[in-house]
Amino acid sequence: MLYNGIDLINIDRIERAVQRWGDRFLQRVFTVREQAYRHRPESLAARWAAKEATAKMLGVGVRGLGAASRKTEAVGWTDIEIVNDPSGRPMLQLHGCAAAHAQRLHITALSVSLSHTRLHAIASVVALSILTPHHESG
Hints:
It is a single chain. By secondary structure, the protein is an alpha+beta fold. Helices cover 36% and strands 28% of the residues. The protein has a three-stranded antiparallel sheet with strand order 1-5-4. It starts with a strand and ends in a 9-residue tail after the last strand.
């Protein structure tokens, strides 16, 4: 079975959040490795979009994302991490509740694609599960 999620964001929305909230925003939403892109708003925005796309793919949606800070079973922002492999290709790494959700869905492979224009960033996430639609509810 395939699961997917996609998200599009205005880059200036992330720029404004960084300007307004600074390190507080960066540390709440991005892992230490992702914060290396703090001076590249298009890269941060693409990672934000990937986190939202991943939440959609996992079935927790954007409302469930970030709720981990409220001590729930929801996926936290930093439970979803986008890093680059040695060739520069983005890779999705799941931690904590995000990894638990993926395990419950029997996800065996993940793929993330990031892109941006001058104004927008977009991310697409696809996951492969060993479950068939018939077995999904069990």
